[in-house]
Amino acid sequence: MNLLRCLAFSLFLPMGLWGAFPSLYLKNICDGQIHAPTNITHAGDGSGRLFICDQIGKIYIFSQGMLQPKLFLDLSASGLNRVFVGTNLNSYSERGLLGMTFHPDYEHPFAPGYRRFYVNYTAPASTATDHSSDPQNCVTVIAEFRVSEDDPNLADVTTERLVLSYGQPQPNHNGGQLAFGPDKMLYIGSGDGGSANDNAEGHTGGSGTSSPGRVTGTLGNAQDKTKLLGKILRIDPLGTNGPGGAYGIPTDNPFANSVGMERKEIYAWGLRNPWRLSFDTPEEGPARLFCADVGQNDVEEVDLITSGGNYGWRVKEGSLDFDNTTPYGGGSLIGPIAEYAHPSASLEGTDSMPKYGTSITGGYVYRGTAIPGLQGKYLFGDYAENGIGNGGGVLLGLEETTPGVFALSEVTPFNSLPASARIYAFGEDEAGELYIAVKTTSGVTSLSGGRPAGILYKVQPVAETPIQLTAVADNTLYEPNGSVTSNAKGIYLFAGKTGESANYKVRRAVMKFDVSGLPSDVTFTSAALRLHLNMQVGQDFTMNLHRLSESWGEGTSNAGSPGGNGITATTGDATWNHRFYNTTAWTNPGGDYEAQASASYVIGSSLSDPYPTWQSAKLLEDVLDWKATPSSNQGWILIGDENQTFTAQRFSSRENTTAGNRPTLIVNYASAPSPTHYEAWLAEHFPEEPVGFYLDPYGDLDNDGIFNLHEYAFGRSPWVKDEEPGLTTSTQPGSAGSTLHILRFWRDSAATDLSYQLQTSADLVTWKTIATSLAGTTAIGSNGGVVLSDTPGTGTLRLVTVRETLAAGANSRRFVRLHVTRSY
Ligand SMILES: [Ca+2]
Ligand SMILES: [Ca+2]
Ligand SMILES: [Ca+2]
């Protein structure tokens, strides 16, 4: 069988060292708890919850950084149509719980879609409502459920409603993705029914045998528009005019009004095994449906799905002929927007394709905010570069270089995936941030290190660490104006054209940085040159930085302040005509440099930014070149607008008395984000637990009366019985018969995820907050509470002392509590 396998080809643009994709950090947020995570989605209800499907039929909720212990829905053993994965859960399977999506109106109480969600799973054979592809190995079920009336974290299993089901002749190629479009219609990815070549039994025109080999000229299921297999289907799950009345046919489906035998559910066809599809809904422009279609032995592809489109299988595999004798009813086949070949591909035409993997896994166009460099790019992957059984999942990306044209590249994350990773799925949260679900074993429930082998990653930006270097040489080249001038040791640099005389003259600044000390074992992410604009003329001028190709000197000349006309050059100075005065001339007066600018900057017409900064990928390329080959480092020359007069600008030089204003090269390198304070606390006290394990905030593991969240808040151990409570009270007499309540609590100033609210009540009903510390800040009193002190204790702990004064005659009994909340 061919499983998820396939490859696609695509236009490959060679990228520079930095690539088109930003450096990404894959943060492990949950491992060792889910067997085979096939789907990650959210309810769109603002709860921040992620819903994770496990192939075996369970749906988990991941929230507050933990996999919640209570299942949202369990279809693994019961339900109207029990999930069927196969008879041996320790072997590879493409069956099971494969998709889930919430109705877009899930949160709207007066809309029909309220509290409804949909799942796609395979059930045991013989329960299908559609028998057009018998024999059946299993049955694809699309079912509706509702969340329970009184618990948003629990689906009501008794509400299952069968929407649509159809038989699968073989165990593989079940598609399974569900996604609502902006039109509120449900899109369903459907595979060709399985086996190989789309011509085994149960496949239209096939030989009727289980393994006919690569028969030519047969129609297959994907090209057979009377079948639901090998398609993108589009239905209205709340409608009733479809076959059986459990769903509706959208009136604008391509065959909605056909009098022929075509299935009216079809939106697009010619798919082999659409393994993950997603809508991109940008703020501007139309939504688009991206679909990854798994190929057979040679080519994997990404398609943009449009209504009535024919994506080619089994005529084509990617853009290559698979069986060009397949009758596909004319019309044009729509080619992929990107494709790549299997490492083992042998089909003619695959030579020119990049080779990345064996089975594509579709992802999402990034529309989040945390990673600006990923905005608008499609992040996806391949299940296993080393073959289905061996893993080696790779991350891939598409960048739309011009409308409709996509550049494919491998995305190398800052931290690599496990070598045995199979990329099962990508997911998106409510904020548009992306997740990756992988599994490190082949069998559905095969364990890794004694635990379930699924891992969830959140895609995050890398942290960046800057290194700042000050210029080691700089100078100004003055176009000859009667004398040979320079300004090696002056406190200013000049660039642009002056207006000093009838012969308006040009100045150019040269500067050099020693990059040999930059670390070698890191990934650099950016380079920028920052100058201090000391004085400027009042217009917008573009100033370009070019890489110098010849060496030059900085002698001892000093034109003083301001020095705009330079002074007679000294031995070894760079001048307009000389690299080294008075021995070596430039080949080209005014400096020998690369024609292509390394970076540009428009100096603004006001001094709004006194620190103009040149930054580009080319600038980083220059720096890395110089680091690799120090003898090639001649620095940059800054060239202003020389087509007009009065464009010269004045910058601080490396000799400037204000150190912070000297020419500075800022090079950033990628680093792993630091663990949060809470993550460090968990790692210290629960070293054996998997990432994302559930810790009950209100549990008390050591029975010391301090529940787990407070153990963290007080900087305590949840395993060591603490004698001293983290919150203490005492009273003392105040003046004029009053009573002073003195309250003390510990807070952790490094726990910026916590808020502490000290609250009192006379009756256990009404509480008032008398002191608050937010995000690690000093406590502040309120409602009569006075913070007497907030003093350092061990490490980052602080002891807060608060006084509450009760007037004479008042009820002096008070209840006290410390309300701690943690943000995620
Ligand atoms: Ca200098
Ligand atoms: Ca405790
Ligand atoms: Ca304790």
From TrEMBL:
* InterPro entries, sorted: 6-blade_b-propeller_TolB-like (IPR011042), Glc/Sorbosone_DH (IPR012938), Quinoprot_gluc/sorb_DH_b-prop (IPR011041)
Domain (Glucose/Sorbosone dehydrogenase) ranges: 36-385
Q: Which residues fall in a compositionally biased region of kind Low complexity?
A: 209-218
Residue span of region Disordered: 190-221
A Pfam cross-reference name? GSDH
Q: Which NCBIfam families match?
A: DNRLRE_dom
- Its recorded name reads Glucose / Sorbosone dehydrogenase
